[in-house]
Amino acid sequence: MNVTQMSCCPKRSETEAVLVYILLSSISVLTAALNLLVIISISHFKQLQTPTNLLLLSLAVSDFFVGLVMCFQILLSDSCWTLGDRMCTLYGVLDYIITSASVGTMVLISVDRYVAICDPLRYSDKVTVRGVVVCSGLCWVCSLLYNSVVMKENITQPGRYNSCSGECVIVINYIAGVIDVMLTFIGPVSVIIVLYLRVFVVAVSQARAMRSQRSGTFLAKRSELKAAKTLGVVVVVFLMCLCPYYCSTLTSQSSSFSATTVPLESWLFYFNSCLNPIIYAFCYPWFMKSVKLIVTLKILRSDSSETRIL
C-alpha cells in the first residue's frame, strides 16, 4: 500500500501554535478531569453501582483515556513527533483500542435501554451487575486483542511506514481496513440505530399510556424512560462526532493514521469524550451531588460510600 508523503515538520506561526496548544491542552485536561469525576462517583458510591451506571463507568474510562491520549498530540514540538517510533505505535494502538471500546460500550448501552423499556418486567433478571461487568470486560479485552492483530505489522516494526524523521504514520492493509470499518462502525452503528428506534417507539407509546392512566399495562418506570432519554442524547451526540471520523476513513484512499497531521474529524471525536460528562451534569442530579462530595473531600469519610445520592 502506498503511503501519502507528507511534510514531517510543517512550520506554524508562534501565535497560532500557542493558541492551538492552549485550546487542545484545555480540552485534554477538562476531558480527563470530568471523566475522572464520573469514574470516582460510580466507583465510590454504592447506590450508583447499577447496571446502567456501570456501563457509563466503562464509557467514562474510555473517555478518560481519550483525554490522556490527546496529551500525546499536544506534546508535539512544532507539529513534529519527537517521542520515537515505539511511542508513535503505542499512540496509534491506544487510539484504535479506545475507539473500538467506546463503540462497543455504546452498543451495550443501547441493549440495556432496549431491555429496560421494551421488557421492563424481566429487566432485573436479564441485566445484572455481574453480567454488565463481564460484558464490559469482554468489550475491552476483545478490543485489545482485535486491534493488536489488525496493527500487528506496526507493533512488530515500529516506524516502518515513516518517510522521514519526525513523522508518525500507522498503516493497516486494505482488507483489514475494510473489516475494521465493518466491525467497529457500520455493524455497531446499525445495531445502535435499530435498537434506539425501537426504544423511541415504545417509549412514546408508554408515555401516552401513562398520560391516559391505563391500568393493567406493564410499563417501564419513569426513571427508566428518563434514563433512556438522557442516554439517547449521549448516543446521538456520539454518532454525530463519530460519523465524520469514519466517513473520512471510508473516503480516503489509504488506511493510514498520521499523528503529525491529525484531521479535524479526529479532534471532533476526541471532543465527544468531553461532552458526555457535561450531558450527565445537566441530566443526572446524582452526578452534581457526587461531584460536590468529591470536591469537598467528604468522600474521605469512612462511611461516605453509603451516602444516599439518588
Automatic annotation (TrEMBL):
<feature type="transmembrane region" description="Helical">
    <location>
        <begin position="267"/>
        <end position="287"/>
    </location>
</feature>
<keyword id="KW-0812">Transmembrane</keyword>
<feature type="transmembrane region" description="Helical">
    <location>
        <begin position="54"/>
        <end position="76"/>
    </location>
</feature>
<keyword id="KW-0472">Membrane</keyword>
<feature type="transmembrane region" description="Helical">
    <location>
        <begin position="96"/>
        <end position="115"/>
    </location>
</feature>
<feature type="transmembrane region" description="Helical">
    <location>
        <begin position="127"/>
        <end position="146"/>
    </location>
</feature>
<feature type="transmembrane region" description="Helical">
    <location>
        <begin position="20"/>
        <end position="42"/>
    </location>
</feature>
<comment type="similarity">
    <text>Belongs to the G-protein coupled receptor 1 family.</text>
</comment>
<keyword id="KW-1003">Cell membrane</keyword>
<keyword id="KW-0807">Transducer</keyword>
<dbReference type="InterPro" id="IPR000276">
    <property type="entry name" value="GPCR_Rhodpsn"/>
</dbReference>
<keyword id="KW-0675">Receptor</keyword>
<keyword id="KW-1133">Transmembrane helix</keyword>
<dbReference type="GO" id="GO:0005886">
    <property type="term" value="C:plasma membrane"/>
</dbReference>
<feature type="transmembrane region" description="Helical">
    <location>
        <begin position="185"/>
        <end position="207"/>
    </location>
</feature>
<feature type="transmembrane region" description="Helical">
    <location>
        <begin position="228"/>
        <end position="247"/>
    </location>
</feature>
<dbReference type="InterPro" id="IPR017452">
    <property type="entry name" value="GPCR_Rhodpsn_7TM"/>
</dbReference>
<protein>
    <submittedName>
        <fullName>Trace amine-associated receptor 13c-like</fullName>
    </submittedName>
</protein>
<feature type="domain" description="G-protein coupled receptors family 1 profile">
    <location>
        <begin position="34"/>
        <end position="280"/>
    </location>
</feature>
<keyword id="KW-0297">G-protein coupled receptor</keyword>
<dbReference type="Pfam" id="PF00001">
    <property type="entry name" value="7tm_1"/>
</dbReference>
<dbReference type="InterPro" id="IPR050569">
    <property type="entry name" value="TAAR"/>
</dbReference>
<dbReference type="GO" id="GO:0001594">
    <property type="term" value="F:trace-amine receptor activity"/>
</dbReference>
